[in-house]
Amino acid sequence: MKAALSFALTAFVATSAISHSAEPKPDPKSALSRPVVLGPDDKPAFEEPPTGFNTAVADIPHGRLEMVEYESKSVGTKRRMQVYTPAEYSKETKYPVLYLLHGIGGDETEWQRFAKVDALMDKLIADKKAVPMIVVMPNGRAQKNDRAEGDIYAAAPAFADFEKDLFDDVIPAIDGRFSTLADREHRALAGLSMGGGQTLNFGLTHLDTFAWIGAFSSAPNTKPPATLVPDPAATKAKLKYLLLTCGNKDGLINISQGMHAYLKEKDVPHVWHVDGNGHDATHWAHILYEFAQKIFR
Ligand code: FER
Fold first, then answer.
1. pTM: predicted TM-score of the whole model, two decimal places
2. Are 278 and 247 within 8 A, CB to CB?
3. H/E run at residue 245
4. Helical (H) or strand (E) element with 275
5. Distance from the alpha carbon of residue 30 to the mean position of ligand 1, in angstroms
6. Residue 216 — φ and ψ, nearest 5°?
7. Is the pLDDT of residue 103 over 60?
8. Are 172 and 68 in contact (CB under 8 A)?
9. Long-range CB contacts (< 8 A, 24+ apart) of 142-148?
10. Structural domains of the chain ordered from first start
11. Which terminus in the chain has less CB density within 10 A, N or C?
């Protein structure tokens, strides 16, 4: 009996040791291809943007894109962010600021590559569909090597660490170097995928810093809705605008659906927009066109 038990235990330990080491790690990418289940609320809130909405044209005033370096105390390196200033930019005026956060495979150049932010903003501002604003595209991977290299999913913790860099270093550097309206009503935070998760995680918990929030195709780094919005009445009182969006071919949609369902149940006003895109740049360019028109008004 004793011998049999000890044999069984040995066998169990051996088997579990083998199966543990042989067990494949869950592939984080697989979340992107989860089956999409759509509900009645999962439909567009906006029309598609007009053709050419982000095609550069010669005959309107052009803003400026520049690469700005700042000292990151939290990371311990010099880091870079891309900054758009509108055509009329002058030190005599103060401007609101939109902070735009990229995805897991991106960096400070991603939003510009995906959405042609300068051409898109130039047109909206020229048409008076958006107020002149500064757009800041920082690097949300807060680690010494912040390039999107190797196993890009392994850097997920650095996207959480970016919270400190954003508040302690990025925002002060922007307010120090540019002519900004440095209060919550003139600051917006938005992001795509990992950047959407960062936006919800950092934005909803810092409504004293940002009054306008846009989370697009948010990734599994998004904290549970009840953690981010523990006091719905307080959130409701502070938010000026919250936009949640996702494509209906995006396997991550369940994350945004969960946030929408919670906010709806708790009566926190927000716009929920689901279009026909996937987890892709078309969705993000389209939604920047919408979000930029809604903020700072
Ligand atoms: C994951 C699937 C996707 C994940 C992150 C992503 C951290 C991010 C995708 C993107 O930013 O495009 O499981 O885990």
1. 0.92
2. yes
3. strand 241-247
4. strand 271-275
5. 9
6. -115, 125
7. yes
8. no
9. 142/72, 142/74, 142/75, 143/75, 144/75, 144/76, 144/77, 146/75, 146/77, 146/79, 146/107, 147/107, 148/104, 148/105, 148/106, 148/107
10. 2-294 (3.40.50.1820)
11. N
Alpha helix ranges (H) inside the chain: 2-22, 110-115, 117-126, 156-165, 171-177, 194-198, 225-228, 232-238, 253-265, 281-294
Structure tokens at 128: 């008076």
* Position in ligand 1 atom list of the atom nearest CA 193: 11
> By three-state DSSP, how is residue 264 classified?
helix
Site of tokens 């906010």: 263
Amino acid at 37: V
Q: Which of 101, 111, 194 to mutate to test the pocket of ligand 1 (most atoms within 8 A of CB)?
A: 194
**In the structure encoding, which two tokens stand for residue 140, read together?**
């949300």
pLDDT at 23: 74
Q: How far apart are CA 219 and CA 217, in angstroms?
A: 6
Is residue 209 over pLDDT 90? yes
Query: d(Cα 152, Cα 194) in Å, to the nearest integer?
Result: 11
